[in-house]
Amino acid sequence: MEKWQRSLYQPNLPLGADGTKVTASKAHITLSKEAAKEGMVLLKNNESLLPFQAGTKLALFGKGSFDYVKGGGGSGDVTVAYTTNLYEGFKKLPEKVEVYEALSDYYRKEVEKQYEAGAEPGMTVEPAFPEETAKKARAYTDTAVICISRFSGEGWDRKSSYDKEMDESVQTDPLLEKAERIFPDGDFYLTKEESAMVEQVQQLFPKVAVVMNVGGMVDTDWFAENEKIQAVLMAWQGGMEGGSAAAELLCGVGSPSGKLSDTFAKKLEDYPSSETFHESVKYVDYKEDIYVGYRYFETIPGADKAVNYPFGYGLSYTTFECALVSAEEKQGVIRVRVNVTNTGKYPGKEVMQLYAQAPQGVLGKAKRVLAAFEKTRLLAQGETQLLTLEAPVAQLASYDDLGKIQKSAYVLEKGKYQFYLGTSVRETEQVFCFTMPEDTVTEQLTAKLVPTSLAERMLSDGSFEKLPQSEPNDPDYSAIKRVPREESDGFSPAVRALPGHQIWSQPYKKDAHIFMEVAEGKITLDEFVTQMTDEELAHILGGQPNTGVANTFGFGNMPEYGIPNIMTADGPAGLRIEKKCGVVTTAWPCATLLACTWNPDVLYQVGAAGAAEVKENNIAVWLTPAVNIHRSPLCGRNFEYYSEDPYLTGKMASAMVKGIQSKHIAATVKHFACNNKETNRKESDSRVSERAAREIYLKAFEIIVKEADPWCIMSSYNIVNGHRTSENRELLEDILRGEWNYQGMVTTDWWTSGEHYKEVKAGNDIKMACGFPESLLRAKEAGVLTREEMEICAKRILGLILKID
């Protein structure tokens, strides 16, 4: 097939080896289920209730057994042929378990009634407890399974019972109102109806298992120390086969091997971010600084007592023995080798986690920081595997943003560096220690993203230090007064008309070089771009209309130069196509579940398979992965993100990017950066210290850029320390391209509030879903924007297109 042939408006050509389509194929759906099984986390299994033995009879309680949530809303939603709920998952295993049908019939009908009335999965009310049917179910069996489901989505955040009064006008998603009606105290906790159901079930049944079908952190206090609930599976939002995945694990078709990618505290208010998360719609103060997630709970005095399930925790049906083979430092790398042996009765996988403890020094550190991890293959009973974990010493350096040792430098402070190996942040033993004789600068940078309004930040002892207040370092846009503001002064977004037939039959511009000449090496990209007029350049820097089944617009679209119209598509849970197109795709497990696999190989496979579906549908740019940090349980989009830890996020997402781009499809890493709240996301200012920004919120992006070379990065909607990210040259040019040497394209998020010419000057190459060419031309005429700046962005856009098949 000719280069870019798939970008043309034509019927989709199957990619399957046997001439069949790979989109929503049996192989992909099976992979989705297996990935879901690997990321589900067994939190509790007292008295070895699980796995259910063959012939076990079950009573399924809770609307969640039918009201299954495959994933979150917004860009993470996917149109599928079907979704398997927990009940259906059990029914596919008749040789393993039997289900009390009268009880299930009740919940099925109750959920169906709410769906018929317009409710969506996860946004239904727990029905009244069926007392008489429950008693009959108890006569049928002594074993109950409770399923709790939750939904959240893009554009709105989860609420809590102690939120201050807020300006609700900024919350535009109609689902928010429904959520507040169903969960008046917030969906972190059980509703009164759910609590009553749980209480009655545990009074009736001596054996109770719980399945949590959720996209993020929720209350675990009601089952953590509750002896009447013996088993809990954190099943997350497992994609279209999530119900089958959970049922199979509960029945012993595989052993759980997931590990938590977040800390589960006893109460919502135990998270340091909770109290002020909804304080204002205009800003968020990141006062906890670097002490996010386990860095807070394992460091701040007394915080450790507020944890039910620590970071990295997860049980298995089998047992493992870990024997240290060696631990050493060589050429600046810590290398730990360990033998892992399956000593139990079931096949299983184990994750070895290496944590570092740096000296507190004058900068202050988290008591534990994840430095490396490795997961075994599936080990049979008695089988052993040797794992090697490696962590560069420089990775442990701290950023000195105030000049306590050396300003704007990463520093390894003098003192002892201790390393702990284990199976969670708390189940570890010290395996190595070395001493740094003197303070050592590992990288000298310059101050960027300096806060202008953050008054204080947390220290390692739980106290706070005052931060110096800097003056905003705004670019000199004095000439901009001559450039009318977009939309409000008459500038409207514009796209070019689509050709009526294939691009190859369009007449090329007379005497012009065509783009294929660049692809074939006949001319340089510089030579190609130089021939374009200012007007043509201005259009290249904005999004272009949809073609085929695409619904998130594209870019390129200059048939007179042979430039194809390259399409983009959401999203983090699979290829999202408008329902009206009639194309169903594979819904993959949510990103949080994928992170809980702690297995980069799984992420690579999911990325490659998902990219094949993107490619088969004539789309070239996949708008995933999303790698913002789980700063607070209340972020409505946490299901789309990986973890509270930037290292785990970076490593797992790097594997996803590599898998996607192995198919010559562009991965788009988003949302750069500090987009940790959905409420008023286009105008909310994330006030964060430079140290926390670099060590926590930018770190995953840095890892991905350096290890996976993503072809595209998406800037975020929000503001960081007073500067809109899409217009922030310090972020996009100085850090991303200058410090990290990123060579790819940067796109805005869709319909940002930023002004197009400011975004171009900041290094944001393209404005999506479409640009403001008139604004760019007026800015150039006013001397605010140069032709060279436009050409630089155009070359990065065209450079991405050159990488596409």
Automatic annotation (TrEMBL):
<dbReference type="GO" id="GO:0005975">
    <property type="term" value="P:carbohydrate metabolic process"/>
</dbReference>
<dbReference type="InterPro" id="IPR013783">
    <property type="entry name" value="Ig-like_fold"/>
</dbReference>
<protein>
    <submittedName>
        <fullName>Beta-glucosidase</fullName>
    </submittedName>
</protein>
<dbReference type="InterPro" id="IPR002772">
    <property type="entry name" value="Glyco_hydro_3_C"/>
</dbReference>
<dbReference type="InterPro" id="IPR026891">
    <property type="entry name" value="Fn3-like"/>
</dbReference>
<dbReference type="Pfam" id="PF01915">
    <property type="entry name" value="Glyco_hydro_3_C"/>
</dbReference>
<comment type="similarity">
    <text>Belongs to the glycosyl hydrolase 3 family.</text>
</comment>
<dbReference type="InterPro" id="IPR001764">
    <property type="entry name" value="Glyco_hydro_3_N"/>
</dbReference>
<dbReference type="Pfam" id="PF00933">
    <property type="entry name" value="Glyco_hydro_3"/>
</dbReference>
<dbReference type="InterPro" id="IPR036881">
    <property type="entry name" value="Glyco_hydro_3_C_sf"/>
</dbReference>
<dbReference type="Pfam" id="PF14310">
    <property type="entry name" value="Fn3-like"/>
</dbReference>
<dbReference type="InterPro" id="IPR036962">
    <property type="entry name" value="Glyco_hydro_3_N_sf"/>
</dbReference>
<dbReference type="InterPro" id="IPR017853">
    <property type="entry name" value="GH"/>
</dbReference>
<dbReference type="GO" id="GO:0004553">
    <property type="term" value="F:hydrolase activity, hydrolyzing O-glycosyl compounds"/>
</dbReference>
<keyword id="KW-0378">Hydrolase</keyword>
<feature type="domain" description="Fibronectin type III-like">
    <location>
        <begin position="350"/>
        <end position="425"/>
    </location>
</feature>
<dbReference type="InterPro" id="IPR050288">
    <property type="entry name" value="Cellulose_deg_GH3"/>
</dbReference>
